[in-house]
Amino acid sequence: MMPSEFDLSPTIYVHTLGGFSVKAGDKEINDSSNQSKKPWSLLEYLVVFRKKEISPAELIQVIWPDDPGVNPAGALKTLMFRSRKLLEPLDLPPQKLLVQQRGTYSWTKEYTTILDIDEFEAICAKVLNQKLSDEEALPLCLAGLDLYKGDFLPRAEYESWVIPVSTYYHSLYQKLMYHTVKILSAREDFSRITALCQTAIRIEPFDEELRYHLVYSLYRDGHTRQALEEYNNTLDLFYSEFSISPSEHFKDLYKVIRDEEQGISLSLEHIQRSLDEESAKGAFYCEYPVFRDLFQLERRAIERTGDSIYLCMLTVTGLNGQVPKTPILNKAMDHLEESIRSSLRCSDVFTRYSISQYLILLPTITSEMGEMVLKRIISNFRKIYNRKDLMVDFRLQPLLPRVRPEQF
């Protein structure tokens, strides 16, 4: 007698990269709901370490690391029931999926289970550890990158057991990505490099090498303006998040692109048009390296003119003096930028100095007038974004002439 389709055991597919889901046939569950975290944690741990039979003590340490007084028998019995409830939509017996026997817990061995991390790791091992030709390696590289939808179990990224596992697979992803870019660069397939890098920086936004390849591939593919935009986006990101600039290697790429875009011109009218601002409303915002050059220029000028110029700083803090949480800080800094721009003269210059600070140059002004200007900025900021748990502190100091070394 031939077995019916209902007698066949389905293969279970588990995705952990970029999110957690379990699929059997056309039925699927995932952790995108707002259900309690602990039942998912137990399920994830048992699936990932499905080849082991895990003791109650180990699970207690994983699920309740900060509560050593938890009663294993009662807590795990309740949690196992809740985790099995999560599996019911798969139309498979939950007791056969989450198995409890001989005093241990484990994921089923009765059904074949395929994890994306196992497939991903196998591809990385072939590509990175075996001497494959580029023609053999490229399809594997692309398949591996397609599997990596994001970091391992992102909703549990701060769990102690998740951190090392996530770091391991993220490191493999970076190596695979660099290897793929190397192959595609040799083929001068810059459009594909662009697409891969655009996906990769959504996963790893602060990887300068990936951003370098994105800018370079756009440039080589003829998208010069877009390459310059991506360069400036990288500059903004590194300043706002870390108060640093990209490497000289990255900046050298900008010079190459800029020189090609501008070419050689004999028309000053054309050059003036190319230098025009898109908008001349409000104070002039510039990146920190430009601000630093303007600062040096103004300091040189006061040696000759004796004018009074003030360097001012505005800092956003919480009531406790600490940096506010990122979503609140980002919104506050956007509104503060708007207030600075609208409160100053169009000849005034400002920049973002750090994640929570702006710097301003105020020429031909006194200390008292400078304080009035800064208080006006803060007052305008409060009209836009009046959170009682935020403070804006200001300081100002006159520019001093350069200290020249003694001449001997």
Automatic annotation (TrEMBL):
UniProt lineage: Bacteria, Bacillati, Bacillota, Clostridia, Lachnospirales
Signal peptide: none
Domain Bacterial transcriptional activator as annotated: residue spans: 115-258
Protein name: Bacterial transcriptional activator domain-containing protein
Tree of life domain: Bacteria
PANTHER family (alphabetical): TRANSCRIPTIONAL ACTIVATOR DOMAIN, TRANSCRIPTIONAL REGULATOR REDD-RELATED
